[in-house]
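User: Teach me something about this protein's shape.
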Amino acid sequence: MVRLTSIAAVSLSLAAALAVPFELAERDTVVTTSKTGNADGYYYSCYIESGNGATMDIGTSTYKLSWNSGSQDVVAGIGWQTGAAR
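Assistant: First, the predicted structure itself:
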């Protein structure tokens, strides 16, 4: 009888643990060409005039811009789109 009670208790604990909602982490948006868009609720803009090797990595309310000597005139940032509600 103890064995059946233990199995029931473990089963209920497992079911309760699986029923708890969990949030998946959002993936970063990686931009390697000139473009604009929305990521994680923020508007972003990335301009790369020529060359290759520039990367904009957009996370939750942050971004990282990296480039090498093969990239020319790189401008990027995140914020609110012009005319958009804040």
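Now, about its shape. The CA atoms of residues 30 and 70 lie 18 Å apart. The longest helix spans residues 2-19. If you'd like, I can walk through any region in more detail.
User: That's plenty for now, thanks!
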